[in-house]
Amino acid sequence: MDLITTTFATLTLYLILATNRIFTAADETTESEEPTKCGENEEYTTCNLCPKNCENPFQEICSPGPCIKACKCKSGYYKDSEGVCVSIIACIVDNIRNRIPQVTERSDSSSANTS
């Protein structure tokens, strides 16, 4: 083998091993770690890459990053705009509520008679 082929093979092997180590480290957990106390309709996970939420319930848009040890919504539940795990029906209500502009009272000066 020539020097270029050997160098390329070495770098390729290094990248494969380094990538494998990164993913292995992300999945490692020890028995002594105490899981976080999770809320209603939540469960603890050691790798919460793409949390399900009402804005993206089917995770069509997901940019996975490093594994995060956290509580996640149980199957069939999604985080609403307040961070609470709710059913898909509650998500629809939450999405509608967040898209409708808030109605504010206005003072109507034209109805006041100034005689």
UniProtKB/TrEMBL annotation:
The entry's keywords: Protease inhibitor, Secreted, Serine protease inhibitor, Signal
Primary location group: secreted
Domain of life (superkingdom): Eukaryota
Gene3D superfamilies: Laminin
Keyword check for Signal: yes
Chain ranges of the TIL domain: 38-91
Localization, UniProt: Secreted
A single MF term (Gene Ontology): serine-type endopeptidase inhibitor activity
One matching Pfam family: TIL
UniProt signal peptide: 1-26
One GO CC term on file: extracellular region
CDD domains linked to this entry: TIL
Keyword Endoplasmic reticulum: no
Classification via InterPro entries: Ser_inhib-like_sf (IPR036084), TIL_dom (IPR002919)
Family classification: Belongs to the serine protease inhibitor-like (TIL domain-containing) family.
Protein name per its UniProtKB record: Uncharacterized protein LOC117240278 isoform X1
Gene: LOC117240278
